[in-house]
């Protein structure tokens, strides 16, 4: 085989012939590309091989130096050696099928029989005896082979289990898609029935209003008809008086005329003194005026009611502070009257006392933080005195600390102002993610409400990397939601408001609590969460994988509850908080999104 390979080597490129193979008149063979390289690289001054200033006309054979003359066709005039080309094809096929013998990289005559665990490579016995692997730990290659095969089989089994799980999940999704279509059709039928019922009510009310209009019309027409009848009767009496007067005017006897003239004058006077001719009714239907604006506004607001879980509509906007120009005065519509007065006063530079009276604030010197910026005003909401619900306003300067929440770092270098009320009429607490606490492998976007894991940035893929919120809570209740539908590995929880160690996982110490999920724990088809605190885990199995997680922190009662939004409770931590609490998040697969500003009773 080796001698055949040498015979099939081109004397120019020293490699196996490449088609097409040309045969020279001296019976030697060359690759066409090699012939072109020889012909067109001849020295232009070598007149023995050129026929003039045109293209080359001859070249020497690389093996026997016999001159080969090219005709008018040039290289195309040389014959192809089809036999050599076929032999080359056969050789390449056979060579590809021959399995080369594996030998040691250091000793070509020895086959590897050992495996070096330190360098993770196969070696021969000489390498262990006299080579660089004398001090290394080695194993028999066949044992390592069996171990590696077992490991790969285990990995393959995991992938097969994952594939089966995906098949089941795909089937469940298809079934769910069919159910969604059926449910949508059912709800469309329900909407059609309800709208038809509204149409029926409107049609009945239309008939009732028509009847009322007809009744008033008949009354008006009857009154007008009676007045016309009376006028016609009076007209007949007037005509009779006129005729009697005309007869008297024709009387030629003066005595009779004079005697009857006074009586006729009185009759004519009485006839002319009849009632004023004014219509008894007008054309206006004052008692049937139409004003359906309120009903139209109500119909324009027709929408689906809240679901069985009692959650608010997803398009509900959280209640921002009164300084937010994007919402204008609409923010105050969500506040009770007492909170409205106080927040309006705080925004305009005045304070409000318990009775709602305004007190003008004094202006501090330029460059100095105002006294109002360093204090927190707290009042009891009058809408629910039995629950003692409270609201808080804090315009925080650097170093300020409100009573119920504290702003953390933000891009401006100072904490945000917190405006929220815990009364049932007001919205919850709104916060964002603190970009200064985010490591390089986590990217914040969507106004610091979305965390995306960036696998291409250098880090340990399963190492600790977390982001904290830009607020802390030291009393009351706060609720937020985390959309986890785009993530396959995350932790959601809270920690004390301190510099959290970068090398510790959430829940890996006694001052953090976290709910963990990793898709690798669901390969057997069972969805599991781990509730972790101080490195102690509690495994919680759920029926369906949540799309959104709800987190309710009740600081005063020492409870941190996690929910599958719209489906039910997952787990509750019972603890005694001694320091301010900060929401914390960790993601190592995909992205998560937080939604804040929700009232604590959103569940």
TrEMBL record:
<feature type="region of interest" description="Disordered">
    <location>
        <begin position="349"/>
        <end position="411"/>
    </location>
</feature>
<feature type="compositionally biased region" description="Polar residues">
    <location>
        <begin position="349"/>
        <end position="365"/>
    </location>
</feature>
<dbReference type="InterPro" id="IPR003877">
    <property type="entry name" value="SPRY_dom"/>
</dbReference>
<feature type="domain" description="B box-type">
    <location>
        <begin position="99"/>
        <end position="141"/>
    </location>
</feature>
<dbReference type="InterPro" id="IPR001841">
    <property type="entry name" value="Znf_RING"/>
</dbReference>
<dbReference type="InterPro" id="IPR017903">
    <property type="entry name" value="COS_domain"/>
</dbReference>
<feature type="compositionally biased region" description="Low complexity">
    <location>
        <begin position="368"/>
        <end position="385"/>
    </location>
</feature>
<dbReference type="InterPro" id="IPR000315">
    <property type="entry name" value="Znf_B-box"/>
</dbReference>
<dbReference type="InterPro" id="IPR050143">
    <property type="entry name" value="TRIM/RBCC"/>
</dbReference>
<dbReference type="Pfam" id="PF01754">
    <property type="entry name" value="zf-A20"/>
</dbReference>
<keyword id="KW-0479">Metal-binding</keyword>
<keyword id="KW-0862">Zinc</keyword>
<dbReference type="InterPro" id="IPR002653">
    <property type="entry name" value="Znf_A20"/>
</dbReference>
<dbReference type="InterPro" id="IPR003879">
    <property type="entry name" value="Butyrophylin_SPRY"/>
</dbReference>
<dbReference type="GO" id="GO:0045087">
    <property type="term" value="P:innate immune response"/>
</dbReference>
<protein>
    <submittedName>
        <fullName>Tripartite motif-containing protein 54-like isoform X1</fullName>
    </submittedName>
</protein>
<feature type="domain" description="B30.2/SPRY">
    <location>
        <begin position="411"/>
        <end position="603"/>
    </location>
</feature>
<dbReference type="InterPro" id="IPR043136">
    <property type="entry name" value="B30.2/SPRY_sf"/>
</dbReference>
<dbReference type="GO" id="GO:0005737">
    <property type="term" value="C:cytoplasm"/>
</dbReference>
<keyword id="KW-0677">Repeat</keyword>
<dbReference type="Pfam" id="PF00622">
    <property type="entry name" value="SPRY"/>
</dbReference>
<dbReference type="GO" id="GO:0003677">
    <property type="term" value="F:DNA binding"/>
</dbReference>
<feature type="domain" description="COS">
    <location>
        <begin position="249"/>
        <end position="305"/>
    </location>
</feature>
<dbReference type="GO" id="GO:0061630">
    <property type="term" value="F:ubiquitin protein ligase activity"/>
</dbReference>
<dbReference type="InterPro" id="IPR001870">
    <property type="entry name" value="B30.2/SPRY"/>
</dbReference>
<feature type="domain" description="RING-type">
    <location>
        <begin position="10"/>
        <end position="65"/>
    </location>
</feature>
<dbReference type="Pfam" id="PF00643">
    <property type="entry name" value="zf-B_box"/>
</dbReference>
<feature type="compositionally biased region" description="Low complexity">
    <location>
        <begin position="395"/>
        <end position="404"/>
    </location>
</feature>
<dbReference type="InterPro" id="IPR027370">
    <property type="entry name" value="Znf-RING_euk"/>
</dbReference>
<dbReference type="GO" id="GO:0008270">
    <property type="term" value="F:zinc ion binding"/>
</dbReference>
<dbReference type="InterPro" id="IPR013083">
    <property type="entry name" value="Znf_RING/FYVE/PHD"/>
</dbReference>
<dbReference type="GO" id="GO:0030018">
    <property type="term" value="C:Z disc"/>
</dbReference>
<dbReference type="Pfam" id="PF13445">
    <property type="entry name" value="zf-RING_UBOX"/>
</dbReference>
<keyword id="KW-0863">Zinc-finger</keyword>
<dbReference type="InterPro" id="IPR013320">
    <property type="entry name" value="ConA-like_dom_sf"/>
</dbReference>
<keyword id="KW-0175">Coiled coil</keyword>
<dbReference type="InterPro" id="IPR017907">
    <property type="entry name" value="Znf_RING_CS"/>
</dbReference>
<feature type="domain" description="A20-type">
    <location>
        <begin position="313"/>
        <end position="348"/>
    </location>
</feature>
């Amino acid at each position: 085989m080796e001698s055949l390979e040498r015979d099939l080597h081109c004397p120019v490129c020293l490699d196996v012939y490449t088609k097409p193979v040309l045969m020279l008149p001296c019976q030697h063979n060359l690759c066409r590309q090699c012939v072109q390289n020889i012909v067109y690289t001849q020295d232009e001054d070598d007149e023995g091989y050129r026929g003039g200033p045109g293209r080359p006309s001859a070249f020497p054979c690389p093996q026997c130096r016999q001159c080969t003359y090219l005709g008018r066709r040039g290289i195309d005039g040389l014959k192809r050696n089809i036999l050599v080309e076929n032999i080359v094809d056969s050789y390449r096929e056979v060579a590809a099928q021959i399995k080369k013998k594996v030998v040691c990289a250091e000793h070509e005559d020895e086959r590897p029989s050992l495996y070096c665990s330190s360098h993770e490579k196969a070696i021969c016995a000489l390498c262990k005896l006299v080579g660089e692997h004398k001090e290394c730990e080695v194993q028999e290659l066949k044992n390592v082979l069996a171990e590696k095969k077992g490991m790969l089989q285990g990995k393959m089994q995991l992938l097969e289990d994952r594939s089966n799980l995906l098949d089941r999940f795909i089937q469940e999704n298809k079934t769910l898609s069919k159910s969604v279509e059926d449910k949508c059709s059912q709800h469309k039928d329900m909407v059609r029935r309800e709208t038809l019922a509204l149409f029926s009510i409107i049609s009945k009310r239309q008939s009732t209003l028509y009847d009322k209009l007809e009744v008033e019309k008949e009354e008006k027409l009857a009154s007008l008809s009676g007045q016309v009848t009376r006028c016609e009767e009076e007209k007949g009496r007037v005509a009779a008086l006129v005729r009697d007067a005309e007869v008297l005017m024709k009387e030629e006897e003066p005595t009779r005329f004079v005697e009857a003239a006074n009586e006729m004058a009185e009759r004519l006077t009485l006839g002319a003194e009849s009632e004023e001719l004014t219509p008894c009714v007008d054309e206006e239907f004052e008692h049937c005026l139409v004003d359906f604006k309120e009903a139209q506004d109500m119909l324009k607001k027709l929408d689906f009611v809240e679901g069985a879980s009692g959650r608010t509509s997803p398009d509900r906007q959280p209640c921002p502070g009164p300084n937010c120009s994007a919402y204008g005065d609409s923010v105050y519509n969500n506040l009770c009257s007492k909170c409205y007065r106080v927040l309006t006063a705080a925004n305009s530079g005045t304070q409000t006392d318990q009775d709602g009276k305004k007190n003008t604030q004094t202006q501090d010197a330029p460059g100095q933080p105002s006294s109002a910026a360093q204090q927190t005003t707290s009042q009891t909401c009058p809408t629910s005195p039995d629950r003692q619900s409270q609201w808080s306003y804090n315009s925080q300067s650097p170093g300020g600390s409100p009573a119920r929440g504290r702003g953390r770092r933000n891009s401006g270098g100072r904490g945000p102002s917190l405006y929220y009320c815990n009364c049932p009429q007001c919205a919850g607490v709104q916060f964002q993610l603190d970009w200064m606490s985010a490591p390089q492998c986590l990217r914040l976007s969507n106004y610091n409400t979305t965390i995306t894991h960036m696998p291409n940035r250098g880090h340990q893929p399963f190492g600790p990397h977390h982001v904290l919120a830009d607020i802390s809570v030291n009393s009351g209740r706060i609720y937020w939601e985390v959309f986890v539908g785009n993530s396959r590995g995350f932790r959601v929880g809270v920690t004390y408001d301190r510099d959290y160690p970068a090398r510790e996982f959430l829940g890996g110490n006694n001052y953090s609590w976290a709910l963990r999920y990793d898709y690798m724990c669901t390969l057997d088809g069972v969805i599991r969460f781990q509730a972790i605190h101080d490195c102690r885990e509690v495994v919680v199995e759920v029926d369906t994988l949540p799309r959104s997680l709800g987190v309710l922190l009740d600081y005063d009662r020492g409870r941190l509850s996690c929910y599958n939004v719209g489906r039910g409770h997952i787990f509750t931590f019972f603890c005694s908080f001694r320091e301010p609490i900060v929401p914390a998040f960790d993601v190592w697969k995909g992205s998560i999104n937080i939604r804040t500003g929700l009232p604590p009773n959103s569940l």
